[in-house]
Structures are given as C-alpha cells and as structure tokens.
Write a structure and sequence with these properties.
21 strands, 2 domains, 5'-3' DNA exonuclease activity, CehA/McbA family metallohydrolase, Immunoglobulin-like, 5-stranded mixed sheet, Pol/His_phosphatase_N, 313 residues, 35% strand, Pol/histidinol_Pase-like, TIM Barrel, alpha+beta, single chain
C-alpha cells in the first residue's frame, strides 16, 4: 500500500504568500517587488497589504502569477496579543460563485475590534466565505500562546516559518505549535513565507514549492489547499511517500533528514563528515497519527513537508 505525501506529476512553482508594498507599510512598489522575485526564480507572489485587498492583475504574465490577497488584523489589547490572518484569493476577478460575498480589488477593511476570540473567528469565516484561503500568521512574533488560538478554525495553513520575523527579531520559526495542533488531529498545512516589507533584507528567504498542472490562480490555490507543496528556506524535496509501511524521502544535498511522527517517536538521519544525504527512509510502527519530514542542508537551512495522515477518520 502506498500513500503519496507529495504528488510530483505537475509542474513546480516557487512562490511567496506574504508580501507588503507601498500600498501598505512596504518600502517599494509592487512593480519593483515583482521584478525582485522574478530575478530570484519565483513564479508566483501574493500581495497581502494590511487591511487592503488587491488583485494586481496587470503584473501577471504567462511566466509569473500574482495572487489576490490581504492581511487582516484583530488585536487583543489586554493582554496584548496580535492576530494577523492572510486571505489568499482562489478566484480570478469575477469568478467567485457568490459575487456579493467576494472581496473586490482595492477593498479596504477596518482593523477588527476585539471583543473575544469570536472576533478573530469572524475574520476567518469572512475570508473563507469570500472565496479565499486563510493562513494563520507568525504566532511567536504575535506573542501568542497555543491556548490563545487553539479554539480557532477555518485556516488551511499556519506560517511555520516567517523569514521577515526571523530577520527582525528571531521570532519566525513556529514548528512546536504546528506539531501541537497536528497531535490533536488538526489537519493544517505548514507554509514558509517572507512577510517582506523591504526595510530589511527580509525577502526571498522563505517560500513554498507548489506542484500544480498550470500557473493559474485556480491551479495554484487548489494545490495549496490540497497540501501538494512543501515549504523551504533552502533545500528541495523531490519525493515524500509511504510504501509498505516505510516512509521515504528524496532531497537535495542534506546534512540531516528528520522524520517527525506522533504518537511514536520518529527518526533522524545525519550525514557523515564531508558527505551528504539525498535519500532517507524509516519503517513506521503503525501507531503513528501522522508523519512529516524536515530536510536540513549544510548551511542550516530547512525544508518542511506537509504531514501524511495515517489514521483517517
């Protein structure tokens, strides 16, 4: 029996899902940003301005896709807790099946007033109802404990690595919270992003590699929703699957390969001095709820697969 964690039959597209321009608090224009990402080998980008939904359709071409997007906020003033949620558009302009609910280009939103956690849930619900994918952003930077958001739902992914937060204040990595949710049976994907503002060198450091049949809004966001991508700050993952109880991964030159599981312990592989790993495998016990793989290269950069769930309800 085989379980595929990463379908590689389509095309690989490199993208950043979290970007700010001069349309909010970024330092450079959308046109300049697209040029930077093209020069760094990206194929798609989402502009996620604070409280401003934008399409930027004119910046897309046959080789580069701009996704509609926004970053919405609802903050608890006492104790100070920050809730930032990305909305990534799943439809091109005019394609949303319920036009009265879809967000429009250049639509502005207020920062939502905090009443209780239900205020944040309302934001998540509105994002989904308007035909967008919701991403829960940078929990460590936001000063959140797991108990501050564990009851929220409606987001398909969490930022497990935010390069901008890592550069600014070493608060970009959020693997423990992700595993805590996965251990509770929550099916949430992990994304690496830039959260680029361009005041610092906070760009082109965290990305997703999406496998999709074509470079369109529908194809890319469908692959994201299905989890057919991996996240990275450097390494590449070529294969991730389970066959006859053995989980296998192929990757670019690596110093370490870690198979992370629960309830059982996983397994870690380390390259010998002066050598590299390009393949790893590990026999599962049969008690695991999920398994995912992390690849670390010789520069300490990491790639993260999404989990394969082993006990489907």
């Amino acid at each position: 029996m085989k379980k595929i964690g990463l379908n590689t039959e389509g095309n690989w597209y490199k993208g950043n899902l979290h970007t700010h321009s001069t349309n909010s608090d970024g330092r450079i224009t959308p046109e300049e940003i697209v040029r930077i990402y093209k020069d760094h080998g990206y194929q798609f980008l989402a502009f996620t301005e604070h409280e401003l939904y934008t399409h930027n359709r004119e910046l897309s071409d046959e080789d580069f896709l701009v996704l509609p997007g926004v970053e919405l906020s609802c903050n608890n003033p006492d104790p100070w807790r920050i809730y930032h949620i990305l909305g990534i558009g799943r439809h091109a302009a005019g394609e949303h099946p319920s036009a009265e609910n879809g967000f429009s280009d250049k639509q502005r939103f207020p920062v939502r007033k905090w009443e209780d956690l239900g205020s944040v849930q309302t934001v998540l619900d509105e994002i989904w109802q308007a035909g967008n994918l919701a991403v829960f952003n940078h929990p460590i930077w936001s000063r959140l404990e797991l108990t501050d958001f564990i009851d929220l739902d409606g987001y398909f992914a969490m930022e497990i690595y935010n390069y901008g937060c890592a550069v600014e204040s070493h608060t970009g990595l959020c693997i423990d919270y992700w595993d805590s949710l996965l251990r509770r049976g929550r099916k949430i994907w992990g994304v690496a992003t830039d959260d680029a503002h361009f005041a610092l060198e906070d760009y082109c450091g965290g990305w997703v590699m999406v496998n999709a049949p074509e470079l369109t809004i529908k194809a890319v966001t469908s692959a994201l929703l299905e989890g057919n991508f991996y996240s990275s700050s450097g390494p590449e993952i070529y294969r991730f699957e389970i066959e006859d109880g053995v989980v296998k991964a192929d990757c670019s030159d690596a110093r370490e390969i870690h198979f992370v599981t629960y309830e059982s312990f996983g397994n870690s592989l380390f390259a010998r001095s002066g050598e590299s790993l390009r393949h790893g495998e590990f026999r599962l016990s049969g008690e695991e709820l999920y398994v995912r793989v992390e690849i670390t290269d010789h520069s300490g950069r990491t790639a993260w697969s999404n989990p394969i769930f082993l006990k489907e309800e």
